[in-house]
Design brief:
alpha/beta; 6-stranded mixed beta sheet; 10 helices; about 35% helix; about 30% strand; globular
Length: about 425
C-alpha cells in the first residue's frame, strides 16, 4: 500500500502557535483482492416497523443474502422489547437458503425498541467466533431502525451515552446505521453519531426505495473491500492533534486521545478506492527562519502488514507573503469536510432558535457544495431554506444533508 502526505502549507511563522492541515492518501496496490465479510444485520422488530416497512426489510435483506459471496458470513439479530439472535454468524455457502427462508417467515413486529439489548447481542455474535475467523475480513454490523431507543416501558431514552459506549468498545467491528422513514420519527442525530463512532456509513431512508438503495450501496462497499482493519499509527508527536477525519471515500470524524507521544487509531475497513484523511495539528515555532519542525510520524497498519513510516514536517519562515500559499488538494479536502460540519452548525442554530444564523450558514454552505459538485447536498440545502421560510418541519432535510454530505468518493481523487 502506498502512503503519501501533503500539507496545506509547508511553511509557518517562526514563533507562536500555528495550525496545519495535512492530507494523507492511502492507495491500495492493484494486486490487493477482495476480502470476505462477517456481517450481522441488527434489525428493529418493534411494533412501529410493521406493514410495508417490514415487508420491504424482509425482501431487501433476502435479496442481499442472494448477492453476497459464498465465503461471506452473515448473522441476523432482532430487537424489540428484548433481543434474539435468530441466525448465528455463519457461512453463506452452506446456509444461504435457510437464512432466506428464515427471513421470509419472520413474525410480525411487536414490542418496544430495546436497542441496548440488540447491540449487545449483535456484538456477541462476533465474540462467539474464534479470532482466526475475524482476521482479514470486514467485521461489520448493519443497524436497521425506524425509531428512538426506548426503555422497557416504551419511553424514549434521551441519554444515549450507554449505546455509544457499547459501540466504542468494539473498535475493530464497524457499524453502519440506516434510519428508516421520516426523521421526525427516529433520532437522526443519534443514528449518524453512533455510525461515526462505529466508523461506518449513515443512510437516511425516508422512503422505501431509498432504503433499498442504501442497503445496496452498503453491500457494494463491502464487496469491494480489500482491507478489513486499517489503523493509523502516530508516533513522535511534536504537535497537538486537533482533529482526524476520513474524507474519502466517505466522511468519518474520529475520537482522538489526549496529548501523548503516540497512539494507534482504528479507522475501519478499506475499499479498493483511494482512502484519504486530513489531520489538523497545532505546533509551536522554532524561533529561526528555515528551521524544519517535525509534526508527527505516521504508519498505516492493515491486516497484519504496514506501510513505510513517513514523517510530516513544516518549515519556519519570517516572510509573511509565504504564508498565503495553500495546496489546492488540501484546500478542497477542507471544504468537503466543512460542508459536512456545517450541517451540524445549521441544526444547532435552528435548535437555538437563531434562524438568521442558520440561513446565513445555509447560503454559504450551498455555495461551497455547488462549487464542489455536490448536487444532492445542494438540493437538500435549497429545500431546507425553503422549508424554513415556510415554517415546515426540517427534520428530513437535515437528515438528508447528514447522509449525502458524507459521500465523497467522487470528490477526492
Amino acid at each position: 500500500m502506498k502512503i503519501t502526505t501533503k500539507n496545506g502549507s509547508d511553511l509557518r511563522p517562526i514563533s507562536g502557535d500555528y495550525s496545519t492541515t495535512t492530507l494523507i492518501e492511502l492507495t491500495p496496490e492493484s494486486k490487493m483482492g477482495r476480502i470476505p465479510s462477517n456481517v450481522v444485520f441488527l434489525i428493529d422488530a418493534s411494533s412501529s416497523m410493521g406493514g410495508d416497512k417490514w415487508s420491504t426489510v424482509k425482501t431487501a435483506v433476502s435479496e442481499i443474502l442472494g448477492s453476497l459471496q459464498d465465503d461471506d458470513r452473515v448473522g441476523v439479530v432482532l430487537f424489540d422489547s428484548s433481543s434474539k439472535e435468530i441466525f448465528p454468524l455463519a457461512s453463506l455457502a452452506e446456509n444461504r437458503s435457510a437464512m432466506q427462508d428464515m427471513i421470509k417467515n419472520l413474525a410480525a413486529p411487536s414490542g418496544v425498541t430495546n436497542l441496548e439489548a440488540g447491540l449487545k447481542t449483535a456484538y456477541g455474535a462476533f465474540e462467539k467466533r474464534a479470532d482466526k475467523d475475524k482476521l482479514k475480513r470486514v467485521n461489520h454490523v448493519i443497524l436497521l431502525t425506524d425509531g428512538f431507543p426506548t426503555d422497557d416501558q416504551g419511553y424514549r431514552v434521551e441519554q444515549t451515552q450507554k449505546y455509544e459506549d457499547i459501540v466504542r468498545r468494539h473498535e475493530h467491528i464497524t457499524l453502519t446505521g440506516v434510519g428508516i422513514g421520516s426523521a421526525d420519527d427516529y433520532d437522526s442525530n443519534f443514528i449518524s453519531k453512533v455510525s461515526d463512532i462505529g466508523r461506518g456509513s449513515y443512510y437516511h431512508a425516508n422512503d422505501l426505495n431509498k432504503f433499498k438503495e442504501g442497503l445496496q450501496a452498503e453491500i457494494a462497499k463491502l464487496q469491494s473491500s480489500v482491507v478489513g482493519n486499517l489503523a493509523l499509527k502516530f508516533s513522535d508527536l511534536n504537535s497537538r492533534i486537533m482533529r482526524i477525519a476520513k474524507i474519502a471515500p466517505e466522511i468519518t470524524i474520529y475520537d482522538i486521545p489526549g496529548n501523548s507521544k503516540g497512539f494507534e487509531l482504528p479507522t475501519g475497513s478499506m475499499t479498493k478506492d483511494m482512502t484519504a484523511f486530513i489531520v489538523q495539528t497545532n505546533s509551536q515555532g522554532a524561533g529561526a527562519a528555515g528551521a524544519e519542525i517535525p509534526l508527527f510520524s505516521l504508519t498505516a497498519v492493515y491486516d497484519g502488514k504496514s506501510t513505510e513510516t513517513v514523517t510530516v514536517n513544516i518549515k519556519a519562515t519570517d516572510r509573511e507573503a509565504d504564508l498565503g500559499q495553500v495546496d489546492p488538494d488540501v484546500f478542497k479536502a477542507i471544504q468537503v469536510l466543512q460542508v459536512h460540519l456545517n450541517g451540524e452548525q445549521i441544526q444547532a442554530s435552528l435548535e437555538a432558535g437563531d434562524k438568521a444564523k442558520a440561513t446565513k450558514i445555509i447560503e454559504n454552505t450551498t455555495k461551497i457544495a455547488s462549487n464542489l459538485g455536490q448536487a444532492n447536498v445542494t438540493r437538500a440545502l435549497t429545500r431546507l431554506a425553503t422549508d424554513i421560510s415556510k415554517g415546515k418541519s426540517v427534520a428530513d432535510d437535515l437528515a438528508t444533508i447528514k447522509d449525502e454530505s458524507k459521500k465523497t468518493r467522487l470528490l477526492i481523487k
